[in-house]
């Protein structure tokens, strides 16, 4: 029987966890068709770059990466968020073979077929359950919806990815079930607007295991919680029904970890951003969430230096941080995004002032984060092992999301044998620093 050498695809993935999910879908499809995959430019038949285009820095990184791939290989296909700005890509790099946008699986696969047709091998290995993954095999991102109905003035996701389009709850739960069967121990649920899941379908009925279920976030979280794996929710817009999710966290159904991007605290700046609420409203909600679920970890992101932000508005944001006592926080200096409504707003802040405010913001939050971590010292809790090194483990608890939060460092001890990455172990937190926690293994007679 004749066999054929597999076509080689160089694949580069940039951007956020949502882009990682898109990359894994593309890679799974390519692997199933017999392609050989890797990150090597020179030996590949074609290089695919899955880009990010959310802020200027991401656009610059994507364009630079495309340029490197063109220099090293010469045959490049561009996909992902920056692909929605095809004219920009083509003007910058006219040599690219094809440009497809985000959430365009069939289009990018067709473009690859045009350049490097699949060469079927009857002896190709079957894919493991759950497909091909960029992330470690013990955790996985599941994208439950595409697009967004929000009209935030600093964001162009609706232009790039369209309006909200929720997957059926049965489809999502089937994927989760397959991933857990393949050894995944933590499911990270993502979308551009995760808490809006199902709104676009009017919470249509779908089926899982023969049971009718409503396509909405509470039902999804409830049923994900029946699987033998952790469930962590990301990108939760602060709708009123988030209180119901916090109740599920208090009951142990899903991890008590709330990733809720707040962006600012001043009412006028939030209005200019087209974001909800204000500092007093959010402080009341945070207090309520913590009363419902005392172990709750709250993560958020903020933008400093937004157009119109004066020292008064910025100081209000710092005051909010001190009162809110958030556990994990990321911050960005405002960066104009081509096509965003915020570009036309008056009161631009100079780059120097943006950077000064960003440094001041992170200094305040670093002290808060260090204090919040110190309060957890003494806890006994299960952790998930991410790495095993010569003399220590790197692990995470319910309070640490992979790739964006700190970690827990646990010294390896004599007598602990047979543990592998992806195992759960019981530890006691012994001390902390500004970003990370440290712990020790609890043996059976100590638990």
Summarize the structure.
The chain is α/β, with parallel strands linked by helices and 447 residues long. It is built from 12 helices and 20 strands.
**Counting H and I runs of at least 4 residues, what is the number of helices?**
12
The CATH superfamily of the largest domain is identified as tm_1862 like domain
Which class best fits the helix and strand makeup?
alpha/beta
Instruction: Please give the number of β-strands.
Output: 20
Cofactor: [4Fe-4S] cluster
Family: Belongs to the methylthiotransferase family. RimO subfamily.
Subcellular location: Cytoplasm
GO molecular function: 4 iron, 4 sulfur cluster binding; aspartic acid methylthiotransferase activity; metal ion binding; protein methylthiotransferase activity
How does this structure look, described?
Residues 7-117 form the MTTase N-terminal domain. It is built from 12 helices and 20 strands. The protein has 3 domains: 8-115, Methylthiotransferase, N-terminal domain (Rossmann fold, 3-Layer(aba) Sandwich), CATH 3.40.50; 139-375, tm_1862 like domain (pyruvate-formate lyase- activating enzyme); 380-441, OB fold (Dihydrolipoamide Acetyltransferase, E2P), CATH 2.40.50. α6 (169-181) packs parallel to α7, α10 (279-292) packs parallel to α11 (311-324) and α11 runs parallel beside α12. By secondary structure, the chain is α/β, with parallel strands linked by helices. It is 33% helix and 22% strand.
């Amino acid at each position: 029987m004749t066999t054929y050498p597999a076509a080689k695809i160089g694949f580069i993935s940039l951007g956020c966890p949502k882009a990682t999910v898109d990359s894994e879908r593309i890679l799974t499809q390519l692997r199933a068709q017999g392609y050989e995959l890797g990150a090597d430019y020179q030996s590949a038949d074609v290089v695919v770059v899955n880009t990010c285009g959310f802020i200027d820095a991401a656009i610059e990184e994507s364009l630079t990466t495309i340029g490197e791939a063109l220099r090293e290989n010469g045959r490049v296909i561009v996909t992902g968020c920056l692909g929605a700005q095809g004219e920009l890509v083509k003007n910058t790099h006219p040599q690219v073979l094809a440009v497809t946008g985000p959430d365009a699986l069939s289009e990018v696969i067709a473009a690859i077929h045009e350049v490097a047709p699949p060469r079927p091998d009857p002896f190709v290995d079957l894919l493991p359950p759950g497909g091909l993954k960029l992330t470690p095999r013990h955790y996985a991102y599941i994208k439950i919806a595409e697009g967004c109905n929000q009209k935030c003035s600093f964001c162009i996701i609706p232009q790039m990815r369209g309006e909200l389009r929720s997957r059926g709850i049965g489809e999502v739960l089937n994927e989760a079930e397959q991933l857990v069967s393949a050894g995944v121990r933590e499911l990270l649920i993502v979308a551009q607007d995760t808490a809006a899941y199902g709104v676009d379908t009017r919470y249509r009925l779908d089926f899982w295991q023969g049971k009718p279920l409503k396509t909405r976030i509470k039902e999804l979280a409830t049923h994900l919680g029946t699987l033998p794996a952790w469930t962590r929710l990301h990108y939760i817009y602060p709708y009123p029904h988030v209180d119901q999710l916090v109740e599920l966290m208090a009951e142990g159904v899903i991890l008590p970890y709330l990733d809720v991007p707040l962006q600012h605290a001043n009412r006028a700046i939030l209005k200019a951003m087209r974001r909800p609420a204000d500092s007093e409203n959010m402080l009341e909600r945070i207090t309520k969430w913590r009363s419902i679920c005392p172990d709750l970890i709250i993560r958020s992101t903020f933008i400093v230096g937004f157009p119109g932000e004066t020292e008064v508005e910025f100081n209000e944001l710092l005051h909010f941080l001190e009162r809110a006592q958030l556990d994990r926080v990321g911050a960005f200096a405002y960066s104009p995004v081509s096509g965003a409504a915020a570009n036309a707003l008056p009161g631009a802040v100079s780059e120097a002032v943006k950077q000064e405010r960003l440094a001041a913001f992170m200094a305040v939050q670093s002290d808060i984060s260090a204090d919040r971590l110190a309060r957890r010292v003494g806890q006994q809790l299960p952790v998930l092992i991410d790495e095993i090194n010569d003399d220590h483990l790197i692990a995470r608890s319910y309070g640490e999301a992979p790739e964006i939060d700190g970690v827990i460092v646990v010294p390896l001890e004599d007598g602990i044998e047979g543990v592998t990455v992806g195992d759960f172990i019981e530890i006691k937190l012994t001390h902390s620093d500004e970003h990370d926690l440290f712990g020790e293994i609890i043996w059976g007679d100590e638990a």
